[in-house]
Amino acid sequence: MTPAKRNTSAHASGRVDDYHVRLERATRGLLALNVSVLERMEKKIGLAPLRALQSLERLGPSLVTELGADLELLSSTASRLSDRLAEAGLITRRVSPTNRRATLLELTDAGRDVLDELIALRVEALGAVADVLNERDRTALIEGAQAFTTAHQQLSATGRQLHEP
């Protein structure tokens, strides 16, 4: 069955809200743009290390166990990932001042530079698209995107998994 027929049959049976389907379709270009940027960054650093840098930026200095929990990784996996990031000079690893058996991780300037590059690539890609929009559509896009981001942050703050019903 084609995706269009699946969506039609799901909608006809009342299982899928038409608004959610329209929203998914409306955001495909934005998602494709983001995937394109992430693919460019993946060639330089890889997605797992990039996610770890983003996590440390959001969390601030963190224990290996905290990074692992944020990324839903085993502590041993988070430790190996942090070893690779430290070897690349993107983070520092040091003994925690509050627990000598724990390792504290922190972004370096080089790690921040990687994240700045990601943002610059997104800004460039978004700008290329925005340049072809009229002013009304640009304003509507900013307002809608800000509202969506706020709602996403509120959902995330509750600890609710976004993929759960």
Give structural notes.
The chain is mostly helical and 165 residues long. The chain has a single domain, classed as Winged helix-like DNA-binding domain superfamily/Winged helix DNA-binding domain (Arc Repressor Mutant, subunit A). It contains eight helices and three strands. Strands 1-3-2 form a three-stranded antiparallel β-sheet. β2 and β3 form a beta hairpin. α3 packs antiparallel against α7, α4 crosses α7 and α5 crosses α6. The protein is elongated and about 55 Å long.
Short recap of the structure:
With 165 residues, this protein is mostly helical.
Strand element count: 3
CATH homologous group name: Winged helix-like DNA-binding domain superfamily/Winged helix DNA-binding domain
Distance between the termini: 24 Å
**What CATH architecture would you give?**
Orthogonal Bundle
Q: Give the total of domains.
A: 1
- Strand proportion: 5-15%
CATH fold topology: Arc Repressor Mutant, subunit A
The overall pLDDT, averaged over residues, is: 89
- Overall shape: it is elongated
- Stretches where pLDDT is under 50 for at least 5 consecutive residues are 9-13
Kindly provide the radius of gyration, computed on alpha-carbon positions and rounded to a whole number of angstroms: 20 Å
Strand order, largest beta sheet = 1-3-2
Order of helical and strand elements = HHHHEHHEEHH
Main sheet overview: 3 strands, antiparallel
Number of DSSP helical runs = 8
What's the CATH C level?
Mainly Alpha
